[in-house]
């Protein structure tokens, strides 16, 4: 189990937020606003998150990374940074060139996370149970960003074994 958010997942610190890409659908603006509102709820609850030993190890692999969030079957990509303490910051409505991780989720998964008073447990559960299903994903799937060989291998192993724990 882990961050996202994620998912999500995804948040903004005190810094200015990047503007919407003109190529994104209108729903992306609404979801981005919801993610901005979710950020303090996520950050306020991450310290109280109950995670198994294995979930904590997985979560530790996300900490300290810049993450691109791809909404599968769309061209929408957001991004955020996860601090070393697990809090989220610097949400953007665009991908980052310096991202080391790639987080895949559906729009519906993101909408479910932002609707919660405490998105952390749902984020952890979505990462723990996330898997690729054909051209989509269920939950949240994390891998290394393109060009990040070590992270891709690390997350490939995590994704194979995370369902066992």
Describe this structure in words.
This protein is 36% helix and 22% strand. The chain has helices spanning 26-45, 53-60, 107-114, 120-129, 149-161, and strands spanning 5-8, 66-71, 77-82, 88-92, 101-105, 131-133, 136-138, 141-144. A hairpin with a 5-residue loop joins β3 and β4. The longest helix is centred in the first third of the chain and has 20 residues, at 26-45. It starts with a strand and ends with a helix. Mean pLDDT is 86; it is low at 1-21.
Descriptive tags:
165 residues, alpha+beta, five-stranded mixed beta sheet, two-stranded antiparallel ribbon, 8 strands, 36% helix, globular, disordered N terminus
Condensed summary:
The chain is α+β, with helices and mostly antiparallel strands and 165 residues long. It has five helices and eight strands, in the order E-H-H-E-E-E-E-H-H-E-E-E-H. It has helices at 26-45, 53-60, 107-114, 120-129, 149-161, and strands spanning 5-8, 66-71, 77-82, 88-92, 101-105, 131-133, 136-138, 141-144.
Note the topology:
Blueprint: E1 5-8, H1 26-45, H2 53-60, E2 66-71, E3 77-82, E4 88-92, E5 101-105, H3 107-114, H4 120-129, E6 131-133, E7 136-138, E8 141-144, H5 149-161
Parallel strand pairs: 2-5
Antiparallel strand pairs: 2-3, 3-4, 5-8, 6-7
Helix pairs in contact: 1-3
| Spatial order of the strands forming the largest sheet | 4-3-2-5-8
Radius of gyration computed on alpha carbons: 14 Å
User: N-to-C SSE series?
Assistant: EHHEEEEHHEEEH
Globally, the shape reads globular
Distance between the termini: 10 Å
- The count of β-strands is 8
Q: What percent of residues are in strands?
A: 15-25%
Tell me the structural class: alpha+beta
What percentage of residues falls in helices of 4 or more residues? 25-40%
Count of separate DSSP helical elements: 5
Biggest sheet character: 5 strands, mixed
Low-confidence stretches: 1-21
Task: Give the mean pLDDT.
Answer: 86
């Amino acid at each position: 189990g882990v961050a996202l958010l994620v998912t999500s997942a995804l948040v903004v610190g005190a810094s200015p937020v990047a503007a919407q890409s003109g190529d994104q659908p209108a729903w992306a603006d609404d979801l981005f606003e919801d993610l901005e509102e979710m950020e303090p709820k996520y950050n306020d609850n991450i310290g109280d998150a109950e995670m198994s030993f294995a979930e904590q190890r997985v979560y530790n692999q996300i900490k300290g990374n810049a993450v691109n969030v791809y909404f599968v079957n769309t061209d929408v990509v957001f991004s955020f940074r996860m601090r070393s303490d697990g809090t989220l910051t610097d949400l953007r409505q665009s991908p980052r060139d310096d991202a080391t991780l790639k987080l895949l989720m559906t729009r519906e998964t993101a909408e479910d996370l932002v609707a919660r008073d405490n998105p952390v447990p749902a984020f952890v559960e979505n990462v723990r149970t996330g898997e690729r299903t054909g051209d989509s994903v269920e939950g949240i799937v994390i891998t290394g960003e393109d060009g990040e060989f070590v992270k891709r291998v690390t997350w490939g192993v995590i994704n194979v074994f995370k369902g066992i724990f």
